[in-house]
């Protein structure tokens, strides 16, 4: 479904990612791990097209998207929940979710029930401004906005960062539900090892901007964790 090949990217003349190769298969939850500052968010931005690649390719369902704009990638079926959520604080909850429809492969006028059914608190807040919500509620809103386009691939960048444990549990349940449906693949960048082990099928570890290790859940043992992830 998603194939990243020999990707190099960064900011200005600074190269952050070096020859990154990974793939996400249909229905998989693939997790991207690594210490702070190794390039996880840079990789997510490069896949979405927010950051242009210096070298390498990003392909989706056999189509080369490397030079495509973020909007084009979204319309191909890629949803994105960025680190920090990036909701529109002056818009209402309802308006924020409506914006997600702009990325739909087919033009939709109404928010799909599937986008909000997983976050039942959101419809009760439709009239509230996004900026008035708690961090956890904003994260749910950003998630629902991405799901509004009914994507085939969902990029989640640090969805558990800075939110209360109860919302983390809700997000875990949502990811498990999406995984059970089998219709949407997920690439998840996350710091919490416990969280990714509870939802992931396959794992990549970034170190100094390169893929240093990859494997399944049974391969993610204490030696690997100690070598690549322990601070």
Topology, element by element:
Layout: E1 2-11, E2 14-24, E3 29-33, H1 40-48, E4 53-60, E5 63-64, H2 70-75, E6 78-81, H3 93-100, H4 113-117, H5 135-147, E7 153-157, H6 165-181, E8 185-189, H7 193-199, E9 202-207, E10 210-216, H8 222-228
Parallel strand pairs: 3-8, 3-9, 6-7, 7-8
Antiparallel strand pairs: 1-2, 1-4, 4-5, 9-10
How does this model look, in words?
This protein is α/β, with parallel strands linked by helices and 231 residues long. It has one domain (2-228): Rossmann fold (3-Layer(aba) Sandwich), CATH 3.40.50. It contains eight helices and ten strands. The chain has helices at residues 40-48, 70-75, 93-100, 113-117, 135-147, 165-181, 193-199, 222-228; strands at 2-11, 14-24, 29-33, 53-60, 63-64, 78-81, 153-157, 185-189, 202-207, 210-216. It has a six-stranded mixed sheet, sandwiched between helices. Strands 2-1-4-5 form a four-stranded antiparallel sheet, with helices on one face. Strand 4 and strand 5 (63-64) form a beta hairpin. The protein is globular and about 45 Å long. It starts with a strand and ends with a helix. Keywords: Amino-acid transport, ATP-binding, Nucleotide-binding, Transport. It comes from Paenibacillus montanisoli. Pfam families: ABC_tran (PF00005). InterPro entries: AAA+_ATPase, ABC_transporter-like_ATP-bd, ABC_transptr_urea_ATP-bd_UrtE, BCAA_Transport_ATP-bd_LivF, P-loop_NTPase.
């Amino acid at each position: 479904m998603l194939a990243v090949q020999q990707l190099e990217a960064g900011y200005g003349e600074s190269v952050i990612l070096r020859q990154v190769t990974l793939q996400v298969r249909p229905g998989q939850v693939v997790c991207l791990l690594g210490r702070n500052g190794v390039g996880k968010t840079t990789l997510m931005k490069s896949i979405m097209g927010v950051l242009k690649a210096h070298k390498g390719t990003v392909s989706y369902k056999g189509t080369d998207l490397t030079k495509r704009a973020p909007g084009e990638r979204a319309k191909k079926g890629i949803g994105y929940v960025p680190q920090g959520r990036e909701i529109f604080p002056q818009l209402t909850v309802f308006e924020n979710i409506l914006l997600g429809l702009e990325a739909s492969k087919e033009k939709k006028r109404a928010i799909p029930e599937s986008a909000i059914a997983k976050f039942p608190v959101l419809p009760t807040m439709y009239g509230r401004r996004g900026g008035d919500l708690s961090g956890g509620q904003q994260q749910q809103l950003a998630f629902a906005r991405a799901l509004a386009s009914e994507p085939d691939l969902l990029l989640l960048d640090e969805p558990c960062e800075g939110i209360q444990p109860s919302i983390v549990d809700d997000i875990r349940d949502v990811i498990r539900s999406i995984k059970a449906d089998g219709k949407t693949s997920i690439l998840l960048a996350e710091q919490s090892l416990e969280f990714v082990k509870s939802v992931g099928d396959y794992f990549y570890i970034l170190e100094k901007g390169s893929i240093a290790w990859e494997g399944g859940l049974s391969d993610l043992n204490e030696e690997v964790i100690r070598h690549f992830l322990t601070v």
